[in-house]
Amino acid sequence: RFTPHMDDSRPTLAPHEADLIGTDPGEVVVIGAGPAGLTAAYQLHKYGIASTILEGSDTVGGISRTEVRDGWRFDIGGHRFFTKVPEVEALWHEILPDEDFMMRPRKSRIFYNGKFYDYPLRATNALRNLGIIEAIRCVLSYVWVRIRPPKDQSNFEGWVAARFGWRLYRTFFKAYTEKVWGVPADQIEADWAAQRIKNLSLFSAVVNALLPNRNQKDIASLIEEFQYPKYGPGMMWEVCRDKVVAEGSTMTYGAEVTGVRHVDGRATHVIATHADGTTEEHEADHVVSSMPISALLAGMDPPVPDHVMAAANGLSYRDFITVALVVPESKVDWNDNWIYIHDPAVKTMRIQNFGSWSPHLVKDGRNVLGLEYTVFETDAAWTAPDEELIEQGRRELVHLGLIEPGDVEGGYVVRQKKAYPTYDETYKANVDVLRGWLAEHTSNVHPIGRNGMFRYNNQDHSMYTAMLTAENIATGSTHDVWTVNVEEEYHEEGPADGNGSSGNTGRDAPIIPSSAPRLDA
User: Fold this and answer.
1) Which of 18-32, 208-222, 478-492 has the lowest mean pLDDT?
2) What are phi and psi of 281, to 5 degrees?
């Protein structure tokens, strides 16, 4: 089993928390039954505290759920169970027994022009796949930018082109980045590229390929294996739900939180609206919220001031579609967990190979390929009929040469709203406004998780914010959950020498100007 690195700079949970008995916090309402919400409910039971869990959909797990359609199981984006937070590692194995986890090899490559390229890029592999003529053109393009570097390197495009040349930039960076974030690459700030690519350039990649014992510490490597529940990540949250309900918490599906009443600096009631239009009020002494913080503020009663509402409306999200296509197992001759698609002629940006995640997700003799699309809710793709998206996915797989036209035996479409918080130049100030208002007017409302905090958290960080919040409620501790996941290093990276990590656990996302033009998916 993976042994996580302890980072002593993080907030830590109190020792022997199972033996602690806190003061009675009164009625606790948990909004959302994703990793953050269910973790909070689970941890509260360690202090003898039951909660009321309100979930707007008909299932648990949020973006970490596992969709089940006709016996097929689909992960939403692919969730590796890897963490540098020991408390989260321990909690995973507390909820699920060890035998329900599989240790899976991590393999992902770039697919471009019918060939697979190593990821992270390796110069010898890339240049060999490109062919001698194109490789020479790429090298000459790199030489040219050394002579005439891009004038503006403050954006992603100029920064990457200066280090790889325009030709390699257009091949391996431009199309994919624009698909993921939905704006032109020259509108994305360069800081993100500097964080992800760090010290790598075409020159350093070639040097490390030819002289592998030199300068290896300069280039980060990714983890080689990860844990994965055999029936998908939703298995974790289905078991967690059963445990908290058995302990006395109540779970209500189809309960979309539309209001929070507050008075004298504290929330008093949470209002949930059901599909038939009926509403239900729940008394609350504490509210643990993993719903989008912008929607939380919009539902305050009395309403928030105009400038606070403007800050809430200033937060935007990127939405997510998976088109899952059933194909014969024999037609998938690659064993990557997923492949990145850099072909600008197709709109899919990544393809999941669900059979490589777990054989329990698919059926004998068949596999499922999940084509992923990031969109805005205003894009035509978001409201397109499922049949249209399935046909588009089939065409794109054929165009890429990954299947033959008649290979698709079935298809399904899974949509996920607000999958990724979109960072722009105003988001930090907007979130600060919302945090300040909550602290002053509803001090017993506790935002947690990715959407609850408008933070590009991974599952483990979302869980850790919930663990700290549960302890704060139960014991009166004052952990600052906003310090979770603020470091600069990408959470899966470690030094290439294999001597361990620096302990940082941050996840990055680019800064996209709010005025940037959107590319329709």
Assistant:
1) 208-222
2) -105, 140
Model confidence band, residue 301 (pLDDT cutoffs 50, 70, 90): very high
CB 94 within 8 A of CB 384: no
User: By three-state DSSP, how is residue 495 classified?
Assistant: coil
**Residue with the two structure tokens 């998780």:** 449
pLDDT tens sequence across 339-365: 999 999 999 999 999 999 999 999 999
pLDDT on residue 459: 92
Residues 6 or more apart from 418 whose CB is under 8 A from it? 292, 317, 319, 451
> What is the distance in angstroms between the CA of the first residue and the CA of the last residue of the chain?
40
Distances (CA, A) of 251 to 54, 57, 309: 6, 12, 30
Place of tokens 């991590």: 106
Any residues with CB less than 8 A from the CB of 446 and at least 6 apart, and which? 286, 287, 288, 289, 469, 472, 473, 481
Instruction: For residue 271, give the amino acid letter.
Output: I
Residue 56 tokens, joined: 């707007």
Spatial CA neighbour of 327 closest among 412, 414, 407: 407
Q: Over the stretch 461-520, which tens digit does the pLDDT of each residue have?
A: 999 999 999 999 999 999 999 998 755 444 455 443 333 333 333 346 888 888 889 887
Bridge partners for 118 per DSSP: 109
Helix or strand holding residue 308 (H, E): helix 306-313
The residue whose two tokens read 């010898």 is: 124
Q: How far apart are CA 300 and CA 93, in angstroms?
A: 38
List, edge to edge, every strand of the sheet that includes 316-328.
115-118, 108-112, 338-341, 350-353, 366-375, 316-328, 410-422
Residue 506 has φ and ψ, to the nearest 5°, of -75, 160
Give me the torsion for CA of 353, 414, 447, 420, rounded to 10°.
Answer: 60
pLDDT confidence of 446, banded at 50, 70, 90? very high
Q: Give the whole-angstrom CA distance, residue 87 versus residue 89.
A: 5
Q: Which amino acid is at 317?
A: Y
C-alpha to C-alpha distance for 149 and 158, rounded to whole angstroms? 8
The 8 Å CB, 24+ separation contacts for 148-156 are: 152/186, 153/190, 154/189, 154/190, 155/185, 155/186, 155/187, 155/188, 155/189, 155/190, 156/185, 156/186, 156/188, 156/189, 156/190, 156/192, 156/193, 156/510
Torsion of CA 7, 11, 14, 17, to 10 degrees: -80
* Cα angle 113-119-123, degrees, rounded to a multiple of 5: 80
